[in-house]
């Protein structure tokens, strides 16, 4: 397990394994919050497909705001802000490819 955390530490350019654990906790809290939202709206596998589709489209910006919020609360806002910038730059279809 320690080598996995060390690998994440190097890949994400972090200072310590503790920071890796905090970042994983932020991802876990964000995912749990989205699941709670889904259940609070009464959306389940038995919900009509179009209702689920609308929720999944709407949840993308909600997830990103929650991720930044939890990142701020856990003192990792800078990491998650950079993470979001990279994520959205990959979604840009007009971005020029670098050689």
Brief summary:
The chain has about 100 residues and is an all-alpha fold. The protein is built from four helices and no strands. Helix 1 packs across helix 2, helix 2 (about 15-40) runs antiparallel to helix 3 and helix 3 packs antiparallel against helix 4.
In words, what does this structure look like?
The protein has 99 residues and is mainly alpha-helical. It has a domain at 27-89. The protein is built from four helices and no strands. Helix 1 crosses helix 2 (17-40). The protein is globular.
Average pLDDT reading: 90
> What distance separates the N and C termini?
36 Å
Order of helices and strands: HHHH
* Classification by helices and strands: mainly alpha
Number of helices: 4
Tell me, briefly, the overall form.
globular
Total beta strand runs:
0
